[in-house]
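// run 5 | inverse folding | seed 20
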């Protein structure tokens, strides 16, 4: 259904001061031709209710005093820690502007102040009936909370479509915690957001969208990263609602096993500080050891069998050249001989070329470099089209997706076509299925070199086309635990996408093999068949790639050693 009038929305917020990423979302709404952002509704909590009459029934006065004192101390420590970490962000280039708060009341035409009571112990906000009446009279289609809290009561009926809250964790974990803090504290591999619908039909909240990105190593950096990405995807959701005049289908709901998310206590702050100090010390030590020639270094190994039968600990290693490493192997068999194309990274130049090795039972022989460019190349994905062999290596540093044709196997290749330009995309895979050519690629819409969190799909009638249609659900995955491509394999008519799993501040911790169950222009479904942990080699600390042509299976892993040797 196409709307015949603008989508009329209002903003619910506990403060007029929000981050520049939230302000950017509001500016986008104000400039959108199909959206009418008319009102800002400020929620003022009643102090008497925050103390909680229910609490007085549940706890004695002395316990209330302790709880209020502990909360005040936590809030003070959060402010001090936030100021200290924002000072660090000011020295960076990526999120420097995040430290500046923006007064959103200067953007939105009309502001209404409301009063809410905060009930304990479920931390749910309830509006006064007269305030709900005022909001209902605004005739809004949708209310949006850029920083979500739990709501109950008649406010859930105040807008025609309901209220969308942006939660920066599982939406049932409670709102009373700094966004992104606990993921860093617990060293979680990913940190996320969800867009949750509160309405009269679903007063407990149902998720409409979710996303999970790699956790940054300190709180404010992680918070800024999540805010930036959540607001970017909120634009897409609101635009979809404005165009269709309806809400998207809800995602499946799962039990919430965790405790309520509260502000950290003093001992937890001290532990957090200790974790950050140790993490920084490790980073400094890593840089010092790198000057001495020691670093985490990727390696490639292979086994002469199909991937489903492969025993990875028996892999034959391709020896890294001095001051280089090999990664992202793709294998092919020609005239009875097996070849492996790899990323060949130089520590001296800080970029990689594409090289090829001939594989045998007794070991691998380097044949030479096959493609070199002024920019970094990796992930030499191979495919055939009209009887010819092509390669689509990763060229994200050049902001394009390109295809090379083999002129004389295996050493001579020529640039055939640049099929997409102006895009930060990595690890692209092209294949034909059901009469279409499909592109699975990892697009970074923020230009921050984060290619590990989003999977996008495009399709065309030819792999050499320059007119690729985006998948209706793009990005089809927003999850740093499985989004980034790590190879493509087939088995018995089934297609499997190998994906990377990023660790806490560690690239390429594990890999997964995912069976592609459904792939159309409007749907994408995959199921994890196997998780590969770096346990097959004694020194392995991570693994992120596997490929097989049915005769040979190649994979990579990372270990700590002297890269000068």
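// decoded
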């Amino acid at each position: 259904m196409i709307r015949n009038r603008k989508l009329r929305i209002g903003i619910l917020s506990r403060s007029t001061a929000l981050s520049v990423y939230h302000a950017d979302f509001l500016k986008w709404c104000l400039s959108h031709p199909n959206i009418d952002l008319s009102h800002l509704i400020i929620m003022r909590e009643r102090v008497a209710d925050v103390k909680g009459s229910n609490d007085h029934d549940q706890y004695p006065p002395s316990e209330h005093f302790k709880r209020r004192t502990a909360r005040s101390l936590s809030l003070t420590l959060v402010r001090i820690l936030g100021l200290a970490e924002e000072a660090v962000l000011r020295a960076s280039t990526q999120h420097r502007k995040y430290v500046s708060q923006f007064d959103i009341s200067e953007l939105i035409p009309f502001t209404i102040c409301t009063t809410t009571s905060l009930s304990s112990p479920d931390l749910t906000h309830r509006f006064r009936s007269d305030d709900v009446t005022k909001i209902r009279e605004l005739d809004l289609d949708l209310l949006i909370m850029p920083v979500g809290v739990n709501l109950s009561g008649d406010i859930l009926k105040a807008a025609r479509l309901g209220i969308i809250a942006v939660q920066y964790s599982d939406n049932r974990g409670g709102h009373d915690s700094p966004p992104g803090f606990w993921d860093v504290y617990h060293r979680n591999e990913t940190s996320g957001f969800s867009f949750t619908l509160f309405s009269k039909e679903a007063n407990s909240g149902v998720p409409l969208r979710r996303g999970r990105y790699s956790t940054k190593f300190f709180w404010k950096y992680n918070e800024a990263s999540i805010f930036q990405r959540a607001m970017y995807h909120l634009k897409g959701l609101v635009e979809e609602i404005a165009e269709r005049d309806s809400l998207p289908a809800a995602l499946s709901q799962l039990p919430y096993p965790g405790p309520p998310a509260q502000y950290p206590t003093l001992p937890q702050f001290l532990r957090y500080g200790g974790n950050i100090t140790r993490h920084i010390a490790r980073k400094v030590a890593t840089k010092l050891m790198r000057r001495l020639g020691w670093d985490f270094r990727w390696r490639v190994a292979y086994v002469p069998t199909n991937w489903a039968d492969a025993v990875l600990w028996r892999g034959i290693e391709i020896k890294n050249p001095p001051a280089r490493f090999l990664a992202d192997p793709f294998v092919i068999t020609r005239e009875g001989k097996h070849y492996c194309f790899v990323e060949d990274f130089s520590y001296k130049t800080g970029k990689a070329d594409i090289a090829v090795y001939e594989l045998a039972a007794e070991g691998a022989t380097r044949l030479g470099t096959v493609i070199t460019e002024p920019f970094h190349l990796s992930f030499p994905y191979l495919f055939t089209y009209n009887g010819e062999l092509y390669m689509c290596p990763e060229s994200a540093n050049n902001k394009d997706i390109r295809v090379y044709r083999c002129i004389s196997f295996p050493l001579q290749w020529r640039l055939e076509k640049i099929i997409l330009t102006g895009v930060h995309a990595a690890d692209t895979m092209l294949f034909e299925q059901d009469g279409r050519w499909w592109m699975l690629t990892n697009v970074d819409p923020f230009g921050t070199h984060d290619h590990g969190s989003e999977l996008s799909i495009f399709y065309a009638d030819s792999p050499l086309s320059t007119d690729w249609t985006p998948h209706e659900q793009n990005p089809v995955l927003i999850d740093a635990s499985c989004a980034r491509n790590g190879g493509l394999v087939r088995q018995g008519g089934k297609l499997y996408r190998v994906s990377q799993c990023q660790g806490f501040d560690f690239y390429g911790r594990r890999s997964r093999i995912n069976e592609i169950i459904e792939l159309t222009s409007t749907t994408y479904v995959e199921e994890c068949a196997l998780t590969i942990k770096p346990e097959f080699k004694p020194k392995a600390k991570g693994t992120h790639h596997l490929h097989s042509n049915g005769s040979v299976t190649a994979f990579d892993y990372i270990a700590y050693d002297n890269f000068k040797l």
